[in-house]
Amino acid sequence: LIEPSGALQTNEPELLVRGVLSEWAALRVDGQVEALYPDRSFSFLRTLVEGPNTFLLEALDSAENRGELLLEVTLDTAVPAGLDGTGLTLAPSAGGIAGFLGEPGCVLDPSSDHRIVARNLETSAEVFTTVAPDRGFEGSVPALPGDRIEFRVADLADNRSAAELRVASGGDPVPPDPD
Do the Cβ atoms of 108 and 91 come closer than 8 Å? Predict the structure, then answer.
């Protein structure tokens, strides 16, 4: 199986499944025949429903050898609760880096599988950091004084909460305005 790979959670309702069989065989997905390309590869789309989705891929070769793969994919479109902005601090930029801190309880959603996405809106640089069991976090983001930094909570399916915005301060030289 080539795709999907990794954590099989998504926020996309259409799933593209691609793979290659090791030898020629008849391929069925949940009993439905799927075509093979000349290189023994296959691809098909399936529409997911919210929550767990299961697909049984079965290959049967000319010698009646059978192979099976159970593919489990979870569709999750629920946006996680965001951040308590009063507990979020962005330290002054120094050397082009600004540290940030979310105090315990800053992440409003109690789920343990979330991460924080800090994105510099001027450069599009994104950094990710894990959420501690006390729902706090810390990290650093590339930033110069005046850069706007957006903080969001993201879940395993990459659903992202509403943003908390902070503006970097500090003594780093501000690049000249090109205008």
Answer: no
pTM recorded for the entire structure: 0.75
Whether 102 contacts 94, CB under 8 Å: no
Helices (H), the chain: none
The two structure tokens encoding residue 168: 């970097």
Specify whether the backbone of 106 is left (phi greater than 0), alpha (psi in -120 to 50) or beta: alpha
Nearest to 157 by CA among 29, 46, 52: 52
- Measured distance CA(173)–CA(64) in Å, rounded: 71
- Nearest CA among 108, 107, 117, 175 for reference residue 149: 117
Give dist(CA 103, CA 5) in Å, integer: 34
Give the 3-state secondary structure of residue 86: helix
pLDDT tens-digit readout, 8-56: 889 999 999 999 998 899 999 999 999 999 999 999 999 999 999 999 9
Q: State whether residue 87 is helix, strand or coil.
A: helix
Helix (H) or strand (E) holding 31: none
Q: Report whether the peptide linkage leading into residue 4 is cis, meaning its omega lies within 30 degrees of zero.
A: yes
